[in-house]
Structures are given as C-alpha cells and as structure tokens.
Amino acid sequence: MKPTLLVLAGPTASGKSGWALRFAKEHRGAIIAADSRTVYRELNLGAGKVTTEHPATWRTGASGPIATIEGIDHYGLNLVGLGDRFTVADFQDYVYRLLPDLWRHGLQPILVGGTGLYVSAVIEGYTFSGRGGRTSQTPAFPAQVFVIDRPRTELYARIDARLEERLDAGLLTEVVSLMEGGHTKRLLALGLEYRVLTEYLLGDHSPEQLSAAVAKLSGQIHAYARRQLTWWRHHGSVRWISGYTEFVERAEQAVRE
Q: Is the dihedral of CA 24, 21, 241, 47 positive or negative?
C-alpha cells in the first residue's frame, strides 16, 4: 500500500471538517487544515477554525502546534501570528515536511480545505520563484482529491445557519477585540466576515445597520462558495461526492490502489 494523501475539499459550510474527523477516527488518520486564515492564531470564529466547534487539547510538536480533537491530531492551525507574513509557499513547505512523519507513524493524512490554492500547491507540486511566479511538477506522492458537492439551496442554507451560530457565539466580540489589538487594517484586507463586520463597527452601530451587514455578508459568503466550486472545476482531476458513505468507499479504494 503506497502512502497516499487524501484531500477533502469543497465550499465553505459543506461539512468537510465533520467528514474528515469521522473518517480519521475510523481509519487512523491525521487532519491537516488547508486554510489561509486558520493558520493565524488570532482568527477563530470568523475563520471557521474547527477548535471553535470542538473541544481541543494543544501541544507543540516538531512541526508546530497540534490540536487533538476526539483523539485525532489536527495540523495547520495557529502556525503564525496575524502580524506575520505567511505565504502559500510556506504552507506547501510545512505540509511537505509533515507528511513523511505522519506516514512513518502509520497515519493516513487527510488534507482538508478550504483554500484551493493551498491544496493545489501541495498536490501539484508548485515551484515558486523569487518574483512570485510558479510552475508545477509532479510531487513525490500520489494524492486523490474529493470535493463535496451539495445542492445549491442546501449549501446556502447551511452557510446562513452557520453564520447565525457564529454571531451568537461571539463573532462580533472577536472582531472588536482584534480591532482593539491594532489589526483593523489587516481585518479589512482579510475580507468576508472580518471585513464586513469591521466596516460595520467603524460606522453606524444601529440594529438596522447590523442586519444590513449580516445580509451583505451572507451574499458575499454565497459568492465565495461558488468561487470555491469553480476552482475545482478548473484544477486537476477530482472526484465529486455527495455523501459520506460514497467518500469512504472511494477514499478506501484510492488508498488501496
């Protein structure tokens, strides 16, 4: 059985994290988050960090912070501070150093994302030049990408429900704290939850303006989900899946091959 990287991709709120955790528990796996925002320590609810939904214990390994959730190690979280520079090349290097260690310990790595560029950099072997350009080469390991594809109306409903849950859990308070910490300019650059809520806090704090901000944010996240799906329609060979059982069957087959 050749070491294989399994990739579980898909739009935001499609259920990637839950499926990955379940699969990892059933198949002695380890999860690597491929998300350009969860690498930052300070970003939590707005980034959809899995540790905001599940209790986790933290430790520091050779690769950096490791969050253990229900017995499964999660990597790629809290790697740097919000003021630090972290690029797709840095993420690729992090994963390439991590994978051999996971395979050596008999673990099945599952790359979960999120950020299509981060995933593609790993599985397509991007080589980065000093001027920001990149080329692709075949990496030293096989990878199989699975993309969750839910009906559009169902996906939008999941996005909106999750947004309400995060607001109830304190998302606005998180943004206020980050602004007070001097990160306002960075939040505006991050987009989506952080940008829209920062703009709201910089303006009129009326209930009507908050409702308008949430409606605007919902529409922007819907559009972001569509862009995530478009990425995978134009990048590489992927398997589109609609249910967890289908994912398990195809993932097990990919590892056997």
A: negative
What is the dihedral angle through the alpha carbons of 150, 123, 140, 112, rounded to the nearest 10 degrees?
-60
Domain 5-152+236-256 sits in CATH 3.90.580.10 = no
| Domain map (residue ranges) of the chain | 5-152+236-256, 153-225
DSSP per position, 138-189: --SS-EEEEEE---HHHHHHHHHHHHHHHHHHTHHHHHHHHHHTT-HHHHHH
Q: Within 10 Å of residue 193's Cβ, how many Cβ atoms? A: 25
User: Which pLDDT tens digit goes with each residue over 177-216?
Assistant: 999 999 999 999 999 999 999 999 999 889 999 999 999 9
User: For 35-86, how does the pLDDT look when each residue is reduced to its tens digit (9 = 90+)?
Assistant: 999 999 999 999 999 999 999 999 999 999 999 999 999 999 999 999 999 9
